Amino acid sequence: MYKYGIRNGTLQREWKEALEAAGEIGFGGVELTVKEEEEVDRLLTDEGRDEVLGWAHDAGCQASSLSIGAFGKYKRGEGDTAVRAEMIEVTKKSVKACKALGGTGILLPYFEREHIDITDEEAERLIADMKQCAAVAEDLQIAICLETSFSSRLLKRICDGIGSPYIGVYQDIGNALHFGHDSVELLMALPKETLMIHIKDSDRALLGDGKVDFPGCRQAFRDIGYEGWLVFETAPGDDAVESARKNLAYAKEAFD
Q1: What's 205's DSSP letter?
Q2: Domain CATH for 227
Q3: How many structural domains does the chain have?
Q4: Could you tell me the residue range of the domain that residue 154 belongs to?
Q5: With 98 labelled, which of 5, 44, 169, 249 sits at a CA distance of 20 to 30 A?
Q6: 192/159 Cα distance (integer angstroms)
Q7: Closest Cα to residue 8, out of 52, 48, 67?
Q8: For 166-175, what is each residue's pLDDT tens digit?
Q9: What pTM was estimated for this model as a whole?
Q10: Has residue 1 got a pLDDT over 80?
Q11: pLDDT at residue 78, rounded to an integer
Q12: How far is CA 83 from CA 19, 59, 101, 137, 159, in A?
């Protein structure tokens, strides 16, 4: 059986309330969205770490991962040296914060919405910067997962260039369709590079009501040997908790 998590934004709740709701529904973890660097810094203090661990303990639901929204500045910086250096440090600190909370990995968003793939120059910059983060990820055994719009060819090139088993891809089976890819083909093309997976359907639908090939994805998970978290980034609908409950029931039937 897979471990099921959900993003706090999907539940439309802040961290404490999301952990409580997720635990009550039956999720094993919550992916906590980190919007500002200051939030990472607080998690690295004893007080900040213990506060979140206390919430998780009371809810019976752990922090599965951290989604580093603050990393969006990297793309907006368009290669600015100072921004790159800042985001490298944010990434390293986020890895340490994730370890402190008992999580598995961090999500780094990097989307090119107009052209889907980034340029060769941008790819080489990203490879060079992620190489600087590899040592801390490997030492703490926390995955750094790039969630992107990119093709499997470009993702493979980036992961090969970085050359670390702890830096790879955060697949999103719903986003794959949005960016013109095939969800199953993208999974199959990146077996060892896929370190975490987001679950959602197309068109903000409940799971099973959109266009995602869930039977195909289920088989792909098995074929590539994926055994990590399946983290829900589903649409909240009119009632975020009830939508999450329905989606979890569907996923357990579809994947387990």
Answers
A1: P
A2: 3.20.20.150
A3: 1
A4: 3-255
A5: 249
A6: 10
A7: 67
A8: 999 999 999 9
A9: 0.97
A10: no
A11: 78
A12: 32, 37, 27, 21, 22
